[in-house]
Specification:
The chain is an alpha+beta fold and about 850 residues long. The chain has 24 helices and 39 strands. The strands form 8 sheets. Strands 9, 10, 11, 12, 13, 14, 15, 17 and 19 form a 9-stranded antiparallel beta sheet that branches. Strands 33-32-29-30-31-34-38-36 form an 8-stranded antiparallel beta sheet, sandwiched between helices. A 4-stranded parallel beta sheet has the order 3-2-1-4, with helices on both faces. α12 packs across α22, α16 packs across α17 and α18 crosses α19. The radius of gyration is 30 Å and the shape is elongated. It starts with 5 loop residues before the first strand and ends in a 6-residue tail after the last strand.
Amino acid sequence: MTTPDTVFFLGNARYGEFEPLRASGLRVGLIRDVRSRGWCADDEAFDTVLPWDPEEGAEGLTALAGRLRAQAAACVLNLREAYVEPYARLLAVLGLPALPVDEVAALRSKELMRRLFTERIGEHSTGRFGRAGSVADVVDFGERHGWPVVVKPAALYSSLFVLTVSGPEAAAEVFEQVRQGVAEHVRAKGMPDRFTALQVEEFLSGSNHSVDLVVDRDGTPWPSPVVDVLTGADLGGDDFHHFARFAPSLADADSQQRMTDLAVDAVRAMGLRLCAAHVEFILTSRGPRLLEVGIRPGGHRARVLHQAHGISFMDAYAAVLRGEKPDLTPRYDRPFGIVTPFARDTGVFTGLRGFDRVTSLPSYAGHSLYHAPGASAGTAAQGHWQILSAELSADRPTDLVRDMTAVWHMSDLVQTRSSEARTAPSAGRPHLLMVGGKDSGFRSIADLDVRITLIQERANLSELQERRADGLFVVEQLDPAWARTMAGSLHRGEAPFDAVLSFAEQHLLTASLIGEDLGIAHNPVRAVQHSRDKGLMRDLLAAHGLPTVRHRVCADADEAAAFQREVGTPVVLKPADGSGSRGVTLARTAEEAAEAWHRAGSTGAAVIAEEYVTGRELSVETLTLDGTHQVVAVTEKLTSGAPSFVETGHQMPAALEEAVARSVADTADALLTALGHRWGPAHTEVMLREDGSLAVIETQTRFGGDQIWEMVELVTGVRLAAATAAGLLGTEAPARPTPAGGGAAIRFFAHENVVLKGVEGVEEARKLPGVVEVKATVQPGLRLGPLTGSGSRQGYVLAVGATRQEAVTRAETAHATVRFDGHRSTVHDT
């Protein structure tokens, strides 16, 4: 087999796991799981990114295999337990040697593992064990083998839901806690029922250790050095989650050799081949005892081995897949460890408290935060994942252990708000910081029983905001750096903030950065950055296999012209950070593209050119709470057409066939998941082509403008702003009002190139059935130029009806009732 140019990681890879491969002259690729919300390195860290949707099953793996074959002699590694079985299926589709899928599925059972250990190695190799189908099974096992005992899932990993039963009196409570937690976890993950099985085991006293191995095609295991583990129980806690892993091992040389030999025996007993394996032990007073084997590398072990011993475990893993001899020889011994603090109490993650206690440790070397505030958090025994990891490096092992233990004792490091707060407001009222925006976002939040501090620009300040805000700071122009400094100063006062948000396009990123600065609930920075940069958005769509169009960020007019010639059809140029149709221009020729580049770039923003697509324009209005996306409505859009495509009307709900509506909703959901959007509304624009295919135009992590937010309230009763704030703060949202109708429609006044003499019929239109609002924002004598964006329009009519069509009819009748009297404006008008 030839040496592959690219090593791909299936589904997920973290920083620290893949970088050593590049030192060997290899390219690194990612097969990104588009459904996963797990923490992964950014796409930009990889040379190649291929999208993969696990929910597409065999068909999706076949398509993925086809894309992999197009990559020169690529090989694929798997690092995660969740992908063990899909990985085996992928290798089978690729025709590569590997364990059969049915063997892999069977070997994930801890009960089967234990039986293979005792039958093929000996009873001394592991602790006693049995099935736990009922409380009686646990009590019977404890009475026969002695208390305490351990109850755990028989097929789940990462120390999830593992608890100790001290005696028969505690058996019922612990068994039910584990049974219910595992069942809910398996159901939420969509896993097979076999993963709900439980096991009871002998409690083994001793220290925790692990050995990671690679196994060649002949089944020969190649072990790496022993890595030591500190669990929560080792440090005084009540569960067995792996709090720290470090090397070199503190075990004596004889014990390390015995563990290494036992790891090799365990891999052979299971018949593993052509894979990585992670073997865990308890080193008891009678010698090492096997706990379990994972058919993938251990979490964080590759990084520990690389930093502590100079070993590239991923190089060794790729080597056995290529039929080459792996190299797991230690180059040196440098004490290095990774700690992963969990929340001590289950609830909503609100941030880190006193993290400078970690960064000031003598051994501190770096950290990664895996979840933004607002995520669910808790202990591993309750099925939660780690919030962050911190790397420590020291001159002596004793110094390393000292600092790891110090982090454990920072019991308040990972802050959570009780999940009960989601259904009952706290007595002290949660504190919300709002950044900018108009009453469209402020109005419904004003009804919440929360404390509101508002940082606002004078032009958008309203009487409602002045009256309702508990704290108000007004400036002429809201500078992001000033806002972050002000927020930090206020947060250190007597009433720190619990969450921050903004619904104003220009302040979305500022709010997220403040949330990141302060460690409070907020929408992730990356989600906002990618939604506001159309170039990043297009790259993200392509990386995740979502419907997009050809595009190019153009540095100058010549590049825009070249793109149009390359596409060979009309293209659209727009500011890469624009909104409200500002600077959007259709260019049919290379010469027009060059001219359009100057118009789109007039504000100084980067310019993106995109392939022009036609069809029905739609927008998907969604609400995301703690990473779960809900499609609230789909809006049909009308525009002025070429060259500027200014929106002239909307109607809701869009008239769509069921299959099309489902495709539109699924596309929006997948896009928001790829973005990492976690909190709040989003407004995703798509084009439904004549052939039924979709193309994503763009998305914004805020509610739709043009009164779309109001249309959502009128038709569905969902108050997007209030629901977002309540979710962030864990308070009860105000009652949803009864929808005003089954449909809503808006029509804008979009006259151009006229000099107005007057406007008539406004009051008459307001009295028509179903009309909610009529606004005319012009005065007689005003000279109207061409429509260049949403700001060029002159007001609107908004109406509701029992159906969408009735709402459209009412809006258009009212729109026609308002008469703009004027004459055409020419260059000779004075």
